[in-house]
Amino acid sequence: MIDRLFPSLRDFVASFAAATPGGSAFELGGVTGGIVPAMPDRSVVNSVVYSDAAELEQRLPEIADTYDQAGIAAWTVWAHEGDERAASALVASGSVLDGEPVAMGCELAGIEAPADGELDLSADPDRDGVVEVLADAYHWDNVGDALAWYDGYHPYLALSEGRPACTLAIHDHDHDAHVTLVGTTEAARGRGLATLLMRQALADARERGATTSTLVATRLGHPVYRRVGYRDLGRVQMWERRKPDPADA
After folding, report:
1. Is 158 exposed, middle or buried (0-12, 13-18, 19+ CB in 10 A)?
2. Could you tell me the CA-to-CA distances from 178 to 5, 12, 137, 155, 217 in Å, in that order?
3. Is the whole model's pTM more than 0.85, yes or no?
4. Which of 101, 40, 93 is nearest to 64 (CA)?
5. Which residue from 4, 69, 84, 95 has the highest number of Cβ atoms inside 10 Å of its Cβ?
6. What is the pLDDT of residue 141?
7. Cα(193)–Cα(230) distance, rounded to whole angstroms?
8. Are 21 and 45 in contact (CB under 8 A)?
């Protein structure tokens, strides 16, 4: 299952960046990166996925130069847990370990969609509604400048009392439903909306031919995903490189 997560994450990083206004993806041998100029200070969307630590080490100066030329203030390398060579190279290059979220995966065969009436689902997710939820959940004021739909990207939006309350997206890749951009407004948390929305999205992905689902879980999202049926696959390290804020000089 972990062998499905990194290729799906890699494909999402490139696809999201290529679709966002002014964005692009780059390939440096076995290293893939996404450039999202609409969110230059958010390293989670300006990120790099690699397949070989030796090549990552060799390419780090080129990667840094690519992001510098694009005006990106912060970017992240998603590293395999226990990849000591990559970790050593990233430390030497000035990156800092910013987080170790949990890699998770599940088989889709046993996933059941919510029963009728359990979920107030937007049949045609409104982009402004999705942006409203993500801005509230993550305090991303500029996410509306970056978000764009593309082929293989399936956004979902649940309402509560008629208002946008919970969102997520599925990125289809090689029969894997990669879950990303999951968020619930602070006012709507604790109602089980994310669990219900996940079940609906995964049941739909199975109908499209997906057999598995993978994701990277935050501390807040981890118990939600466990309830849906995901299991832990280990840790993923997020190594961030951030330019100093001129205001702190």
Report:
1. buried
2. 8, 8, 20, 12, 12
3. yes
4. 93
5. 95
6. 85
7. 17
8. no
